[in-house]
Amino acid sequence: MARFQRSPEERSLVQRLDIFLLTFGCISQVIKYLDQSNISNAYVSGMKEDLHLVGNELNYFTTYFNVAYCIMLIPSQIILTYVRPSLWLPGLELAWGVMTGLIAMTHNAKQVYALRAFLGLCESSAWPGMMTLFMHWYTPEELGKRMGFYHSCQAIGSMISGALQAAITNTLSGTSGLAGWRWLFIINAIMTVVWGFLGFFMIPDLPNRPNPWAWWFSKSHANLSMARLARANRAEPKKMTWAGIKRTFASWVVYFIAVLYIATVLGTYGYTYFNLFLKSLKNPDGTKRWTTSQVNVIPIGGSAIQVAFVWIWAIASDFLRTRWTLIVLQAVIGIVPCIVMSIWTSHPNSVALSAAYSSYFISYIGLGTAPLIFAWLSDLIPQDPEARSLIVGVAVAGYYAISAWSQILVWPAKQAPYYKYGWQSALALLVRPHSLFHLARIFQRLTTEPRPKRLEFAAVINGEVVADDEGAHAKAIDSDNEGESSKKVRPAAVTPIGEAPQPGS
Length: 505
What we know:
There is one protein chain. This protein is mostly helical. The chain is 70% helix and 1% strand. The protein has helices at residues 8-50, 57-79, 85-103, 109-123, 126-137, 140-171, 180-202, 219-231, 242-249, 252-267, 274-280, 292-297, 299-320, 324-346, 353-363, 369-380, 385-410, 422-447, 451-466, and strands at 205-206, 209-210. The protein has a two-stranded antiparallel sheet. Helix 14 packs antiparallel against helix 18. The longest helix has 43 residues, at 8-50.
């Protein structure tokens, strides 16, 4: 299939989207991950001793965050279809910036629990919300790369977090009577609030309802964006309806994507405890093998590997026009460190310590599945934006719902680094994607056969899609209006969820 050649005007539009929408999302993601993950850096940099933390309280910090994140995620995805994204996403970013700064003032674990819960409520909108916006603005040939670049910013945030904590420990610790880990949260809060304010002007909202504060986005850009949706067989964004919710949960796609996402993310979770592994190591004389700064800096190498391979996976998916084969390949790579570490944690003397180091670094290679999964979701159901928004929310919420309790059981901090079940459970989860893809092909084959029912469904849903939200343009658009496409772009007809659009439809 020949690739579509974009006009100079379209290239200019995509460049504007990259400069404003993608840049805001990427830097926001870096800051978000700083705010979210710095708890681990602070824990190994004096927070544990200053707050007298014991047992699995570090795990509980994550649990409170995950529970709140899970509770708010799906409602946030629904709210995003009613409230302007340029108001909702930056507004919540300002709120979580304040929560981050308040952690610097805590004196016990209970205060951290409360703030981490509020932080989870506010941050729940960011990652799935931006992924959903990318599906509205970018075509299939552009989407994988942008999602991959955005997702890689998590690793960039992790790299900056370790380097920032090391720098603060060496320079600001003790300034104004505050420990270095407290300064980390203060600096993060300032960065978050400043960047969140810029989001009011950098997010373009939706192609059919553009942001009036986005000075860089004109009416001609909006018309071109709607034409791009039609060319890519995408329906225009619309507000969530009860019919859309029922349609989503009646489909196999929501369950397939959710299970696939949860399995691949939890299956590669061991890398997050690299710093606890480093902190636990001791020299033969009983002294610590690595200093506090080194514990924060060494995982930066793993994050660099993650950034490079997320880009490689994403670019390859767009170039080769395949998602699922690369997802399976990443799962295969992830199985290798799971096997090695399962043996090392049970029989540390039977496996060289260098193999454990290598396993942690190899585990970073397979961390690029999320952008491919959601780019694939956009390919599976291009004509149902309601379902896409909801499925993203369900998948991510499902992960956080399970992660909230499973990490305490599977990766307890008091067992670090000799986890009894951590790497074995990860191995079991990474084997699952192989069977899921066989089921997906069967379901897709079954659902694409009844052509008459699909056409009937498309006619009904198409009436919903073309209806204007205010009712001003409630009349149906048929083929006689094709000549007026320059005035109002006709959105693509909607086929049932999970069904491949037929040629000419």
